[in-house]
Structures are given as structure tokens and as C-alpha cells.
Design goal:
Number of helices: 2
Largest sheet: none
Number of domains: 1
Distance between the termini: 46 Å
Helix content: over 70%
Oligomer: single chain
Shape: flat
């Protein structure tokens, strides 16, 4: 048996992540647990806040990788 197998393709990774997220979500939805902590929280507002946070995080991440990091690397190359 060989240990040097090709890494899985991007679609395979996406499907695996989707399955890892979808199966627990389906199980939670099918059991419909009553959680006392969620009783006064608007899930719509919580989800929209999560989406807003993820949006801001993604913008920051993209800024870091596309602007901040290349500038810092080019400054390190120029300085040494």
C-alpha cells in the first residue's frame, strides 16, 4: 500500500465539509431539542449578526492576504 496518495480535489473537500455540517444539523432539527437559553433570543437576529460578523471577518482576512502581507513581504525583501 502506498502512502503518497494525491490530495483530494476541492469539490471532494467541499462535499466532506458540507456533510460534516449537514448531518449534525439534520439530527438537531429532527430531535427538536428545547433549549432554555434560546427562549428569548430571536434566531433571525442572531443569524444576521453571525452573517455580519463573518462578512467583516472575510473582508479583514482578504485585506490581510492581498494587501498587508504582500507589502510586508516586499518590505522585508527590500530591507534585507
Amino acid at each position: 500500500m502506498q502512502n503518497d496518495q494525491n490530495p483530494p480535489c476541492a469539490v471532494c473537500k467541499l462535499v466532506r465539509i458540507y456533510i460534516m455540517l449537514a448531518i449534525p444539523m439534520i439530527l438537531i432539527m429532527s430531535t427538536q431539542p428545547e433549549i432554555a437559553r434560546l427562549k428569548g433570543i430571536s434566531l433571525t437576529n442572531a443569524f444576521s449578526a453571525l452573517i455580519a460578523f463573518a462578512f467583516v471577518f472575510m473582508i479583514g482576512w482578504k485585506y490581510y492576504h492581498e494587501i498587508w502581507k504582500p507589502r510586508r513581504e516586499s518590505a522585508d525583501k527590500d530591507g534585507t
